[in-house]
Write a structure and sequence with these properties.
Chains A, B: Its cofactor is FAD. The structure is a homodimer. By secondary structure, chain A is of the alpha+beta class. Chain A is 55% helix and 12% strand. The model of chain A has no long low-confidence stretch (mean pLDDT 96).
Chain lengths: 567, 567
Amino acid sequence: MSYRAPVQDIRFLMDNIAGFGAVAGTELFADATGDTVDAILTEAAKMCENVLAPLQRPGDLHPAVLENGVVRTSPGYAEGYKAIAEGGWIGISADPDFGGMGLPMTLTTAVNDMMSSACLSLQLNPLMSQGQIEALEHHASDEIKALYLPKLISGEWCGTMNLTEPQAGSDVGALRSKAEPNGDGTYAISGQKIYISWGDNDFTENVCHLVLARLPDGVAGTKGISLFMVPKLIPDADGNPGKRNDLKVVSLEHKMGLHGSPTAVMEYSGATGWLIGAEHGGIAAMFTMMNNARLGVGVQGLGAAEGALQHAIAYAQDRKQGKAGGTGSIIEHADVRRMLATMKADVFAARAIALMNAVAIDMTTATNEPKWKARAAFLTPICKAFGTDTGIDVANMGIQVHGGMGFIEETGAAQYARDVRVTAIYEGTNGIQAMDLVARKLMDGGEAAFALLEEIQETTDATKKKFPNLAESVWQAIENLRETTEWLVSQDDLTDRFAGAVPYLRAFARVLGGHAHLQAAVSGDAARERLARFYINRLLPEHASLLAHTREGSADLMAITPDDFAA
Amino acid sequence: MSYRAPVQDIRFLMDNIAGFGAVAGTELFADATGDTVDAILTEAAKMCENVLAPLQRPGDLHPAVLENGVVRTSPGYAEGYKAIAEGGWIGISADPDFGGMGLPMTLTTAVNDMMSSACLSLQLNPLMSQGQIEALEHHASDEIKALYLPKLISGEWCGTMNLTEPQAGSDVGALRSKAEPNGDGTYAISGQKIYISWGDNDFTENVCHLVLARLPDGVAGTKGISLFMVPKLIPDADGNPGKRNDLKVVSLEHKMGLHGSPTAVMEYSGATGWLIGAEHGGIAAMFTMMNNARLGVGVQGLGAAEGALQHAIAYAQDRKQGKAGGTGSIIEHADVRRMLATMKADVFAARAIALMNAVAIDMTTATNEPKWKARAAFLTPICKAFGTDTGIDVANMGIQVHGGMGFIEETGAAQYARDVRVTAIYEGTNGIQAMDLVARKLMDGGEAAFALLEEIQETTDATKKKFPNLAESVWQAIENLRETTEWLVSQDDLTDRFAGAVPYLRAFARVLGGHAHLQAAVSGDAARERLARFYINRLLPEHASLLAHTREGSADLMAITPDDFAA
């Protein structure tokens, strides 16, 4: 069962829905010509299809293990990583001064999408490095940049993010790790960190940990937290990895999926660290990185969904069963067709949102316009949560398409579901994303939301002649969403927003998906029009029940007491 | 993390929603007094909590294995099985003439619910036996009954169902296994069967396989299939297991979950079999068994959901994170409360439907009234599909409540999701259930459906004074469902029914859940009223978008070509 990168779909969405033309039209991204985009997508597609996809199952069967303090990675992962690094795929959007390609985040997003479909557990490694590269570009000193960025961008070294501690998960402000000044400009970092993705490996020369810790004068909560670079091997004067730092992998987790990715408990015992950004400014630095990492994780979700979709399509086209007409395969059965169409339509919607998000980030970088910045910030939680929920739902439906075979591990369908499950949890659970959306991202009084809704309503108006019914459905859905957004903005008690935050986020994604599908129908491609009809007539109506849930507020929910659950 | 059997919830639903009083009022089930019911539920609860629940994780960690042709089961399973057998829990509803208790299926359902929460993979074994006992009671000769039923009911022997072959899954009529008359009244059975749950074990004296095969003069398709009893060890004249039959376990599957349950590929090489029922009447005999097995599998789904719910509640009550008010635990966060309330409300709805289904079966058995028979047949696919979908959804949400811990296997949350996944597939996929509902179960012109809707609408009317808003919502939802049911019945092209079958089934379950919650609110229990408000105001609205999907028919869906998926 082989993966084929959906280069055409991605290119179509970039050009026709996400508005990549505007990005390519900026001075900063003038190099992102059509030819360059083609070359990037085509080359990355080859690597994903030929090198990464064959590593998907071996990583599941032969998890990374900790042996005598050393992490041994899954068979073939070292070679797979080398292909990613040598292709330049880690630093597509990184600073050219340090070896990056300086190309738009939209292209990074497209390539991450493909890599996620091909081998999610390995792709998580460069995704972490990309986040670290961005954090260093924005917050590190020139010295640190000069030392670390070339190595991270080339892939010789890789990066991790160390936030979580046993008592500090979603509430990162509760962390206890300490940083004591050594008097020479460095710090001694101590503490335990958990859930460290790719906490170690046996194929990069060094592993660079970005660690959140509290200085002696750091206040309690998030405002007293600082960020430190804590390398596994301390670079010598020439930048070569030298002395072993005082840190170690204590254990690796046994996880539901993503077995190829070693998830470590890390122990720092006075390890030498370098401050990144300002003292007590760790959270701000982390947020820079986190916003784009959230886009990256949303893309993991939709990438895994694409993999599961292709896997299910191949099975449904091949499998004969029952009195199916046409090709005689189960794809002719209405219910199988319904499942595959749902999967395909939702992957399309999630990818559209991710690329819209990436374009907004690129436009922010290129123009520094507040409008784009607000757009990017607003779309990020939607992209993360809907992308990963779609990953879970599509992978789950993919199992169902396989019937009994779906439950058998050899088939590979179940692995997509097990692997992708964590994406709805890490990098901020999807509940946290939704709370971010209805609180922080509506703090502008809904300005960013209403601007986006107005824009897509206008593009909907323009389609009314060609597709009156479809356009009317999308237009009305946008209107319903606007009304509920107005209601949300007027709720002063945040609990009233939080109670319906998850349904609201999903409704917003549903409506954006309606917009994307409608625009796809307008493009004149008959297949895209058929899928758009399916989505708009059958899946979009869900937004109404989600908005009804949202507008219930919190009173009835919070009236349910903890004791009510004790029965 | 310990399981506590929800005896009160089950009893409440039996008495107040499912109408168990009518069953206990029949002559046949006069023994099912309140005291008897209490005793059964209390004793079974103890066994589930103390004996079965501790086997849940060992079964996952130490799957059943095939060694030199012998299946070795998971640690503790032999003792667990013994407790089930000795408690009499296999034969609660079996014929007292052969050692059963002769009690209503409603009680079997309640006990299966608890056993499924405690240890799904082991519970699957007696569930298979229960189906076999029922098939033999209805279709076997007196000799076979006398020989097999006492052993199956006591649990000394256990039973399996052998339908599926590699080319014959949902399309059972495509099977190729053969039965040749031996001339002495027995048959030589040959063929390969796959996905045989509990195909062998090391704790029962014998394993009795019910095998579908084709006689030499059997026509192609389902009408040429016969059913045979093919024991692992052929009983001697005294009924003791004797000579090894010509059958073997070829291999066990590596599955996503349910590791404690050995799923076998079985090879029959001229094994001796005895005809059950009429020649070429195998499908009819299988259907008797399958209808109740489908109820049983729906109950597995909701039982697993109950287990996952309790697991998540315990975590949420214990875990401190962020600025939570009240108890300081994450259960105080609105989004966590929303997840737990959704889980609890849906388990309640699924359990209500299962018990309504069981009551209809019992009333059929006791009264032989066509009305009850039609009710039971109608509810069965809804119970199976909604129960198992709820199992998957609730277990998935249970992982999310655990945050990062949910993805770590030691926590146990992931196992519920992995184990329960197959329940939406086996015993007829949920797609097959939905097609059964909209085709066969509406073949009466909707009579059974409309009778049920009328009944619940009347009970809704009676609540309008006390809860005008809730009652109005439920009443309107029933009305919407009736309209779509009328539309479905009027579709002559079955494809137009099949295209929306899955959303329709779910909408029906949503509405039945609304009915159950409304009745629970009326009972005067404040906690139940709070949960009912949550369900009716926030979850019930989903029915509208599902019905919209249903009424789209098939044209637009089937217009999507197989080639459209090739991109």
